[in-house]
Amino acid sequence: AVLEKIRRYCPSIQKSSPELQEIIDALKAMELEGYQFEGAEATLEMLIRKQLGQYRPFFRVEKFKTIGEQQAGEETASAAAMVKVVVGGQAEMNAAEGNGPVNALDCALRKALERFYPVLRTVHLTDYKVRVLDSSNRTASKVRVLIETTDGKESWTTVGVSVDIIEASLIALIASIEYKLIHTSV
Predict the structure, then answer these.
(1) Are 110 and 123 in contact (CB under 8 A)?
(2) Full-model pTM
(3) Closest Cα to residue 58, out of 94, 96, 95, 110?
(4) Residue 35 and residue 46: Cα distance in Å, rounded?
(5) Phi/psi of residue 115, each to 5°?
(6) Is 52 helix (H, G, I), strand (E, B) or coil?
(7) How many CB atoms neighbour CB 48 within 10 A?
(8) Are residues 161 and 171 in contact, defined by beta-carbon separation less than 8 angstroms?
(9) 175 vs 40: CA distance, rounded Å
(10) Radius of gyration over every alpha carbon of the chain, rounded to an integer in angstroms
């Protein structure tokens, strides 16, 4: 099954190809970290492309910050996020507000990148799921974040893993944006 997915991006790959073993080793290593690729086809594709040398980073997140605020007794929380990205040697810093830290981070990231990649104006998150991976560590447990994104025509799902839910979310958001950009430039 993995070989068939790899052949979408490298039709000449064979069972005996060293690249196949490198991809399988990378998959296993990420699965040991808590990644799961069923239902996160976009992340799997990005991993395969990276291993095959068919990937170049479109941007780098240099730093980010989220701030949440909630009044006691109120149901809604406001949040703000600041993101600094670097694209081709040019830095862009932007901030946004949202109805939680992940929403604010998503908005700030896309806002910072839209200057370089206007196509991202059509992209938005449609689903967000969090799974605790090892509850024995309680609040220090790793979490897996799955996000579904759409551009209004297609939808794709990415995954991020970390002990920090915001960082896991950012990993999945970055993968989602890179997936869109690689499919726009192909």
Answers:
(1) yes
(2) 0.88
(3) 110
(4) 13
(5) -60, -40
(6) coil
(7) 23
(8) yes
(9) 10
(10) 17
Query: What is the residue-level pLDDT of the chain in tens, covering all 186 positions?
Result: 778 888 888 888 888 888 888 998 999 999 989 998 888 999 999 999 999 888 889 999 999 999 988 777 777 778 999 999 999 999 999 999 998 899 999 999 999 999 999 999 999 999 999 999 876 767 668 999 999 999 999 999 999 999 999 999 999 999 999 999 999 964
- Tokens linked to 41: 């086809």
- Contacts of residue 131, defined as CB under 8 A and 6 or more positions apart, other chains included, come to 143, 144, 146
- The Cα–Cα gap between 155 and 136 comes to 34
Q: Closest Cα to residue 102, out of 136, 152, 143, 133?
A: 143
Total number of residues shown for the chain? 186
Residue at 27: amino acid letter? L
